[in-house]
Specification:
Layout (H helix, E strand, L loop, with lengths): L6 H23 L6 H12 L13 H4 L10 H27 L5 H12 L3 H5 L5 H18 L4 H17 L7 H14 L4 H26 L9 H9 L12 H10 L1 H8 L1 H4 L5 H11 L4 H4 L7 H12 L1 H11 L1 H18 L4 H15 L6 E2 L17 H11 L3 H7 L5 E3 L3 H7 L10 H7 L3 E3 L4 E8 L6 E5 L3 E6 L3 E3 L2 E3 L4 E4 L2 E6 L6 E4 L21
Parallel strand pairs: 1-2
Antiparallel strand pairs: 2-4, 3-4, 4-11, 5-10, 6-9, 6-11, 7-8, 7-10
Helix pairs in contact: 1-4, 1-5, 1-19, 4-5, 4-7, 4-17, 5-17, 5-18, 7-8, 7-17, 8-10, 9-10, 9-15, 13-18, 15-17, 18-19, 22-24, 23-24
């Protein structure tokens, strides 16, 4: 039975639902676990001034959020505040969806379209994620709105060009909106009975301005990029961009999940041929252009959940006639529970215990290593400390690292540059545990990981040695010089007795070890035997998405 709520009252209810979802997302900002990709992108905020960012595209956010480390001494708090910045970008995108939808539907249906986008499955969970997607979605949607709905004055042309050029630097996937701009441009020319040539000239000026802004922004941004002295790492970071495209439907499971958890978007897309019949030919061309980015699901490699924040903004404008048609037939008030059901379910199933574990482990690492210390991890889990390979990301990164054939990890360990390791991916875990994973790390990497780190808490392994009894002459190979502490018994190193709980200064190189009988002991590369400052709960340290 349809709830009787019409006109302005229903519009206000829809706007209230949008506001409520933003408030719920704000709660998620401070309770949802930090995704591995967010750690990666936030670590670049710290890496940029150190000259450790190794590619210019996809990293402009490191400059735009350079203020975040000043917010707090706690990196999780910094990241949460940075997420609020992304939430603001998402709010801009939602508003642009509403304004653009007014081209095709009534005011109430336009607000409903904005709500459908915001509640749309992965968009609700990742609209505030710290990565370029919310930023480029907002900038490009503003540009589309200005071209579609505003007079093409010099100010509009300049603003659009600036936004598009900057978006291109923020992410190379901005090019996927090209059909959207082409459709909007066609519409603006077609709607003009007179002065079409002038409209074409003004629209043509926008990409010229965008190209100039792109060049200037990239030139300025390149200052300080790829200045690392490790040529292997530099080449690794730059070349990884070549692997953005892969086999067809690479993210099919995420696409199917998104289609299921955002049924209004899915149904709205399927019924488009019926919903578009009342629109003019020029409007249909524009709508097709806005829908065209869906094609990228076929060939784009990184069709992960966060991608739908970027993808679905123009698509929702394209299906606004469908949403209006559904609302007319079944009642907008009856549609609201269906739209809001997805955020309700997603909120209920979130693993809220992960973020406290992340917070606790980062705090423990900072306690054990008060000064920035080199570490190995799949992602930038400790953003303010230098990873030995800042570009080791996803399957793309591992694939290129293996093909490159250079044991950067082993070299770093043998130089004593690695104070700790996070066992946050199969390949690294295998090396620490004495196993191998074909086609990932180099053989020397696996050998260097095994035997040079000791498990501590959660996924944290600290540099050190397990000393097990043996008859005959024994030796101890030390890569990381410094003060070591012994846990569990007594041994003799270079004729110096070292007792349980005591420490010894060791230089890099080979040392004589005497330990004939007893249990295996732990020799930590720390001044004191480490003990957790707080209990650590069991459970995953990271959620994929």
């Amino acid at each position: 039975m349809e709830v009787r709520c019409k006109g302005n009252g229903l519009s206000r209810l829809i706007v209230a639902a949008i506001a409520a979802l933003f408030l719920l997302q704000m709660i998620l900002v401070f309770t949802k676990s930090i995704n591995w990709d967010e750690f990666l992108h936030y670590s670049q905020v710290y890496d940029l001034p150190r000259g450790r960012v190794v590619w210019a595209t996809q990293t402009l956010h490191a400059r735009l959020f350079a203020w975040a480390p000043w917010v707090s001494h706690d990196v999780i708090t910094q990241l949460e505040v940075a997420r609020l910045g992304m939430l603001a970008f998402e709010a801009v995108a939602v508003w642009m969806i509403v304004l653009m939808s007014r081209q095709f539907v009534d005011r109430q249906s336009a607000f409903l379209t904005g709500l459908v986008y915001l509640a749309g499955g992965y968009v609700f969970l990742h609209g505030f994620s710290f990565r370029p997607d919310p930023m480029i979605t907002a900038t490009l949607m503003v540009s589309l709105y200005l071209i579609a709905r505003r007079d093409l004055t010099a100010r509009t042309i300049l603003l659009c060009g600036v936004l598009i050029g900057v978006a291109g630097v923020m992410s190379i996937k901005s090019v996927m909106y090209f059909p959207c701009f082409a459709g909007v441009a066609w519409y603006r020319v077609a709607e003009r009975k007179r002065g079409a040539a002038q409209t074409i000239a003004r629209i043509a000026a926008i990409p010229v301005v965008a190209a100039l802004i792109f060049y200037l922004t990239m030139t300025l941004h390149r200052q300080g990029i790829a200045t690392t002295q490790d040529v292997a790492v530099k080449g690794f970071g730059v070349s990884a961009n070549a692997y953005l495209l892969s086999e067809l439907f690479h993210g099919a499971r995420y696409t199917v999940t998104q289609a299921l958890v955002a049924p209004v978007i899915t149904v709205g897309t399927l019924i488009l041929p019926f919903a578009w019949r009342r629109h003019s030919k020029a409007e249909k061309v524009m709508l097709v252009g806005l829908l065209a980015p869906l094609v990228t699901l076929i060939f784009y490699r990184n069709t992960f959940p966060y991608f739908f924040v970027f993808l679905l903004a123009p698509v929702c404008v394209a299906i606004s006639p469908s949403i209006a048609m559904i609302a007319r037939r079944y009642g907008a008030s009856n549609l609201l529970p269906i739209v809001l059901a997805t955020p309700a379910v997603l909120l209920a199933i979130q693993p809220y215990g992960v973020l406290p574990r992340q917070h606790a482990l980062i705090g423990e690492i900072h306690r054990l290593f008060p000064q920035p210390t080199g570490y190995l991890a799949y992602t930038g889990f400790v953003p303010d400390y230098p990873r030995i390979i800042p570009g080791l990301i996803s399957g793309v990164g591992l694939t290129y690292y293996y093909r490159m054939g250079k044991p950067i990890i082993a070299n770093s360990i043998e130089r004593g540059d690695v104070g700790f390791v996070l066992s946050d991916t199969d390949a690294v875990s295998a090396g620490l545990e004495g196993r191998t994973v074909p086609g990932s790390l180099q053989p020397r990497d696996f050998a260097a990981l095994h035997g040079n780190f000791i498990p501590y808490v959660s996924d944290l392994w600290i540099a050190g040695k397990m000393l097990c009894p043996a008859s005959g002459a024994q030796s101890l190979e030390i890569y990381r010089p410094g003060t070591y502490s012994l846990e569990g018994g007594t041994v003799t190193i270079d004729r110096t007795p070292v007792r349980d709980g005591s420490s010894i200064i060791l230089t890099a190189g080979r040392h004589n070890l005497k330990y004939k009988a007893g249990p295996c002991l732990k020799l930590w590369a720390l001044p004191q035997v480490p003990h957790p400052a707080r209990p650590f709960s069991d459970g995953p340290l990271m959620t994929m998405f």
